[in-house]
# Entry
Amino acid sequence: MVEISSIPTAASLTVRQADAWRPDLVSGEVPHGEVFAAGNEGAGAGLALALALDRMAARSSDGPSADAQEDRMWLWVQDREALRRSGRPYLPGLPRALRHRLVHVSARSAEDALFALEEGLRCRDFAFVVGEVTGNPRALDFTASRRLSLAAERHGVPLWLVRLDAKADLSSARMRWRAQSCASPQPRWNPQAPGVPSWQAELFRARRHPPGTWVLRDDGRLVAERAGGIAAIAPSRFSSHHAQPVEARG
Amino acid sequence: MPSRSKPAGNAAPPRRILAIWLRQLALDRWRLVEGLAAGEGVDAQPLALIAETAHGPRLAAVNDAGLNGGAQPGAMLADARTLCPQLAVAPSDPAGDLAFLESLAAWAMRWGPWSALDPPDGLLVDVTGVAHLFGGEAALLADARAAFARRRLSVRLALAPTAGAAWALAHHGPDGAILHPDDDPAARLSGLPVAALRLDDDVLTVLRRLGLKRLGDLGGVARDALSRRFRNRRSAAANPLLRMDQLLGRVPEPLLPVTVIHAPLVQRRLLEPIRHRDLLDRVVADLAQDMARQLEGEALGARRLELGLWKVDGEVLVRRLELAAPSRDAEHLAGLYGRKLEGLDAGFGIELVRMRAPWCEPLALSQQDFEAAAEAHGTSLAACIDRLLVRLGEEAVRRPVPRASHLPERAQRWQGPLERETSSQAAFDFYFRPLKMLDRPEQIAVIYETPDGLPKRFRWRGQVHEIARAEGPERIAPEWWRERGTARLRDYYRIEDGQGRRYWIYRSGVIGDGRGGTPAWFLQGICA
# Structure
């Protein structure tokens, strides 16, 4: 016998679904995120790592399995073109918490990269998996992305897939971001110097959140500002991505 | 076990035997028991180990001081005392020496897969195809010499293609001699005395009377004459011709390994000889099950199997097969034999079937539904890495570890993902470093305030970036102890362009440093 009052009303469900995304948001959903970024800047990988760290921090602050995850390795898969365009991970520049736990895979082709991603997702000893794939290779179709989503959900390993110089094709990713670097805040002691990493990020499709645009900063932890004048700060370069999608090789 | 001479055309490596002669085994052992170093304490005075014989005590071994005093091994004690009145004696212990030699033979297997005794005071170790593990044959000999020196045993070593040649070189050749497979053994060994042939004393006397003193002299005599002279000498130790052939590798020389290799063996005696294939298949399936049970008990898996079939008419058929990975799956083994037994001629029937596994490898008990478990709970890190390595290769799956270097591209090193990380000094946090680094720094065209001011604008990959903010320089000098003198210093700048993209660039050299022309600029790092 089900109490009538225990059944959530449709209105409450829609309200919960419409919760805006914010950092530190703990959700039971294992994310399969995609970050679209240009290959000649570090915004994609930077944002992916920041999101991964943000999720780990959020879960360790109130999750029951707080300390269990802390010393697991993580996997970073790059295909050859991504390696050529945006470089290789550099140990002294990685976030301190992740520095000594990286396993890096340099795949020859997108097929190999997808294989490595799926193997990584099926491994219970990885904290999360980051992938970098250039363009829109034929191997990365909706079926492949669905496979990745299912593997991530089944084994509880989050995946952030950075898509360099790609157009947003069909995908089953739960959250899809477009990221570009934007002007950093001025450091206190040397206003002439670049500040902490900042990105203008647009969440253009998400399962549980309405779309939105933020300025995200990695200020020790992920900070989001929903600045009203974002369009004024940087006239979006996203449109140019759409205009000139770069075809993947191989 | 006879010599493993392979048929011609087989690419098996040439056989290599290491001969170890413990020159003073009895004395070394006596010193170890007494806790003395060589030439120390009692050992500084003339001393002999004596054995009791029917005619009174006889010297078995004499130390260096005793040899200088005139005592010879083999002499009667009374005779030796007249030459060297202060000769001290201790009882010898041949049985203990032999037991010690046996334990040494097992210990000497560190240099090769099997070793044999060469009583009374020698060892033979088969080192075929293992020298590279020690860094070459000379390094292997040096390692053996050091190991014996640590145990305070004086040895002479030699390495040769046959046991006879190795023995001859160890006893009568230069110490640490190596006879290479493509050397001519007859020429290399012709200068050694005939005693190098391991012959009995009376045969040596005969040879000496015949005027044959060196191995080269034997080659000068017609073979017929020698074989006629020694025609009634059957044993190898009494027949110089046989010994010579063994030394040159023309006749195989059996050597008994000191440890027995146990090969699991199962067999079925058949009440009535079988002639039909389906019955034989059932017998083989039963044998495979017995074999699987026996292997499971020893936690082994078979890599090679031999099936012997004894026929009623006295013939033996042998069928061998090898497996790619150790296995003890009875159905698998029996199924593999299904193909091997096709076209078998049973004749009047087979009365005995025996299965042997001469080559086994450790195979731990494993979970049956491994794949299903992996599907439900995820794979372990090692299994995941294995799969990645198999498909993508060693070079593709790696992990960065720090390396002590100032140069940014040398400050990290890549190694296997599960290798242990060596300890290193932590990097300084106040140095900024980019998130990613290009494999090769890309040259860029930069407008900057000469000679060493901040950059204003640069062109990279066909795109012009206006530099909005910059910080620098961080000057990194070349590593003069490693690089050539013309290497230029680098001034690194952190920059942010007008659209917020952050990079790490450097100018290679400064104007007028005398190490090249106008400094070039490079983009090396891409920041988050």
About this structure: Chain B touches chain A through 54 residues (CB under 8 Å).
